[in-house]
């Protein structure tokens, strides 16, 4: 299959390479990155010419919409666009409408699994769009990931992603708060992990991505909190969740508080460039009155 892959950063490059290594013909484009092993065009439109499928992995909805306009102008009817970016629900639905008007399929398919999952081909895709397009894309999802869930109509993939990551942001803060409290109560972190990871406080944030170094499976905490998932990306997703909650008139008090905490950490402290689990040393250094 001839595939154009637009957005070859930390996530997009390994995804594109996995497709290429599986035998697909991949032409890439990125405004900055030029990863080894991928033939790159000089624009998104040139990468998309002759492609059966265009896959995008982009920073935000504004860029995703601009790239969609560019590639939709050159794609033939019957082509398929798969956007793996995490963007606004409304932006995904607007791209879907523009694609449908040209007879082109569109799926919003944001991912979970981080850079490690992109490299290993173990991502989870949350997919919005029609069933027929999802079926067409399934073999590609199988190469790039371990699971793809059809979430319903266009935009529902983004809805699933931002709801999932709102939970993740909230639970990571709660996990870090609990470790910081355990420290001050004299409870060793290993004992804390052994109890909570097998009790009612268990969650992905402690069981699979423990924010305490030297405890549990390997995580960014064991690498100086270098990002697997950067704090500024968590902030982006929490902001998307709160924008969606405002539009839907949904009560999300903990989501709003998590957004405020990560805003303080990223914009006013030293959280930018660190993993989102670096919330633990932040909280461990704080007293009750400083929160």
Look at the structure and give the mean pLDDT.
Answer: 96
β-strand number: 9
Radius of gyration: 20 Å
Strands of the widest sheet, in order across it, are 3-2-1-4-5-6
pLDDT < 50 stretches? none
Strand content: 5-15%
| Number of H- or I-type helical stretches | 12
The span between the termini is 54 Å
The percent range for helix content is: 40-55%
* Pattern of helices and strands: EHEEHEHEHEEHEHEHHHHHH
Estimated structural class: alpha/beta
Q: Main sheet, how many strands, which sense, barrel?
A: 6 strands, parallel
Large-scale geometry: elongated
Could you characterize the architecture of this molecule?
This protein is α/β, with parallel strands linked by helices and 291 residues long. It contains twelve helices and nine strands. The relative contact order is 0.09. The model has no long low-confidence stretch (mean pLDDT 96).
């Amino acid at each position: 299959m001839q595939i154009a892959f637009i957005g070859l950063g930390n996530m997009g490059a390994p995804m594109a390479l996995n497709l290429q290594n599986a035998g697909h013909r991949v032409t890439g484009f990125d405004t900055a990155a030029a990863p080894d092993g991928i033939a790159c065009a000089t624009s998104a439109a040139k990468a998309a010419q002759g492609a059966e499928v265009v896959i995008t992995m982009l920073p935000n909805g504004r860029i995703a919409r601009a790239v969609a306009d560019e590639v939709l102008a050159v794609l033939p009817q019957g082509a398929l666009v798969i956007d793996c970016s995490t963007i606004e629900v409304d932006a995904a639905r607007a791209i879907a409408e523009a694609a449908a008007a040209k007879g082109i399929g569109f799926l919003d398919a944001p991912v979970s699994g981080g850079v490690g999952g992109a490299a290993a081909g173990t991502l989870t895709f949350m997919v919005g769009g029609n069933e027929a397009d999802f079926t067409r894309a399934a073999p590609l999802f199988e190469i790039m990931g371990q699971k793809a869930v059809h979430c319903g109509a266009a935009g529902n993939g983004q809805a699933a992603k931002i709801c999932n990551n709102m939970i993740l942001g909230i639970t990571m803060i709660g996990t870090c708060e609990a470790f910081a409290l355990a420290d001050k109560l004299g409870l060793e972190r290993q004992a804390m992990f052994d109890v909570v990871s097998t009790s009612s406080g268990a969650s992905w944030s402690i069981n699979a991505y423990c924010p305490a170094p030297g405890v549990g499976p390997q995580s960014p905490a064991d690498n100086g909190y270098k990002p697997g998932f950067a704090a500024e990306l968590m902030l982006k997703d929490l902001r998307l969740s709160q924008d969606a909650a405002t539009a839907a008139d949904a009560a999300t008090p903990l989501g709003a508080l998590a957004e405020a905490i990560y805003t303080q950490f990223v914009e006013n402290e030293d959280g930018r460039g660190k993993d989102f689990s670096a919330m633990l040393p932040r909280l461990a250094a704080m007293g009750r009155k400083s929160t």
